[in-house]
Write a structure and sequence with these properties.
The chain is mainly α. The chain has 2 domains: about 180 residues, no CATH class; about 300 residues, no CATH class. InterPro entries: Ac/AlaTfrase_AlgI/DltB (IPR024194), AlgI (IPR028362), MB_O-acyltransferase (IPR051085), MBOAT_fam (IPR004299).
């Protein structure tokens, strides 16, 4: 089940919200857990057992660490055991096929018989719920949150359906108080509905309209320079509106239930460096990488070389987290290398003014990275790069012209107008002046590429309020949402891009 589907909009969500607000407060977390398991089982019920087993296992590990004591030797042993088991589960389901295929490629070069392994299906959302489970047991070990004895609350935290499939990556320490005490007001519910509709419009109206452009261009066997750049531009916009649209919808659903989740995007395409980009893009993941990977590797506490190594390795592993493919590993290395370069050059990651040349350069670096991120394999990536940088034929190929419509091209132009207008407007309204730092003892201020900006701002469509009378704004939003629902009913199924991770 996905948010952008009729069964969710007209059956699951109204039924859940009705039961939720009719239930006594003490039963709402249990109802949320039950609904979230139904939501997950709608995809495949057999993987629900794995999901529940990972949850119970980390709940038990948390209790063992809590009983051993904060940062104790015994607690450390339990932590290592828990992290290893979690990573083994993730590794088996997500990387076993990739590992066998890579090994077989090496074996084939020696003329030997390859291994034959049954294809392993990737459980949806496993990257997110495993990462959230790991963050919980690490936080218990560090003393950042006490080990909870309430299995229902912990299971509901891991399974809460608004963020279950594609984030944001939440942390128990940030939500534990809201599970115990959260407010339900008409204003918060209305804010949640508004945010959900904005995300829905971004996904259905913009991202889904751009998807055919990117698909056509990346599928061409001999793209022209024009085809390749068009595909790169289309995917760059599609991914942002698709993923930020999902995050908006997740945050909106949380507000409807009284939860306030962290922001996940802060106008990333106005960034003037890769360092700034990672303060604005997928904020929940960048903070996770900072707090649980970069710090664990040593952060900036060692030599200059070790700091650069930690930056590159963090992003390399972050790329691998996105998927079992060499394309993601290279994408992570690309970003990690630029983070290290910018740190060496002391690039300002919180500029006070827009410098067009720096912005263009940073945007090109991001877009070039998205090409290999989107490509099915290295051959497709190489084909696209060769076309992009041959600077040959800038016209579109005949096959591409036959596939594309004027409405799709108009939507692409509109997408970039929206990004530019709202991005520049928010830059002047609330510039990126700094990033929240972890405790001084953890020395995280040396990780500029993976420390996000303060995330208390709300991102509307895409991330700013519109200067129109409130009533007119709401009417326009409702009309666009209604049109999006009609478009959803008419188009074929289009899952969120981050479901594959």
């Amino acid at each position: 089940m996905v948010f952008s589907s009729n069964v969710f909009l007209f059956l699951f969500l109204p039924l859940f919200l009705g039961l939720y607000y009719l239930s006594p407060a003490r039963y709402r977390n249990l109802l949320l857990l039950t609904a979230s398991y139904i939501f997950y089982a709608w995809w495949r019920i057999d993987f629900l057992g794995l999901f529940a087993a990972v949850t119970v296992f980390n709940y038990w590990i948390g209790l063992r660490i809590g009983a051993a004591g904060v940062r104790s030797k015994t607690g450390q042993h339990w932590l290592i055991f828990g992290v290893v088991v979690d990573l083994c589960v993730l590794g088996y389901f997500k990387y076993a096929n990739f590992g066998v295929d890579s090994l077989n490629a090496i074996i084939a070069s020696f003329g030997l018989e390859p291994f034959v392994v049954t294809h392993i299906l990737l459980p949806i959302g496993i990257s997110f719920y495993v990462f959230e489970s790991i963050s919980y047991i690490i936080d218990v070990y560090r003393g950042d949150t006490p080990a909870t004895r309430n299995l229902i609350d912990f299971a509901a935290f891991v399974a809460i359906f608004p963020h279950l499939i594609a984030g944001p990556v939440l942390r128990f320490r940030d939500l534990v108080d809201q599970f115990n005490h959260r407010t339900h007001t008409l204003d918060k519910f209305a804010e949640g509905c508004t945010r959900f509709m904005q995300g829905f419009i971004k996904k259905v109206f913009i991202a889904d309209s751009l998807a055919p452009i990117a698909d056509h261009c990346f599928a061409l066997s001999d793209p022209t320079t024009g085809d390749a750049w068009l595909g790169a531009l289309a995917y760059t916009a599609q991914l942002y509106f698709d993923f930020s649209g999902y995050s908006d919808m997740a945050i909106g659903l949380g507000l409807m239930m009284g939860f306030r989740f962290m922001e996940n995007f802060n106008q990333p395409y106005i960034s003037q460096s890769i360092t700034e980009f990672w303060r604005r893009w997928h904020i929940s993941l960048s903070t996770w990488l900072r707090d649980y990977l970069y710090i664990s590797l040593g952060g900036n506490r060692g030599s200059t070389f070790q700091t650069y190594r930690n930056l590159v390795l963090t992003m390399l592993l972050g790329g691998l987290w996105h998927g079992a493919n060499w394309t993601f590993i290279i994408w992570g290395a690309w970003h990690g290398t630029w983070l290290a370069i910018e740190r060496a050059l002391r690039i300002d990651a919180a500029p006070k003014s827009i410098r067009p040349l720096r912005w263009i350069f940073a945007f090109l670096l991001v877009m070039v990275g998205w090409v290999i991120f989107r490509a099915e394999n290295l051959d497709v990536a190489w084909r696209m790069y060769a076309a992009m940088f041959s600077f040959g034929d800038w016209t579109l190929s005949e096959l591409n012209r036959a596939q594309l419509t004027s409405l799709q091209i108009a939507t692409l132009l509109l997408a970039y107008v929206v990004i530019a207008v709202f991005g520049i407007r928010q830059f002047h309204a609330q510039p990126l002046t700094g990033a929240p730092k972890a405790k001084a003892s953890e020395q995280t201020d040396g990780a500029p590429g993976i420390v996000p900006a303060a995330n208390g701002t709300r991102s509307l469509a895409p991330s700013a309020a519109i200067d129109l009378p409130l009533l007119a704004t709401r009417v326009a939003l409702l009309l666009l949402f209604a049109a999006s629902v009609l478009k959803l009913s008419a188009q074929s199924f289009s899952p969120f891009l981050y479901f594959q991770f």
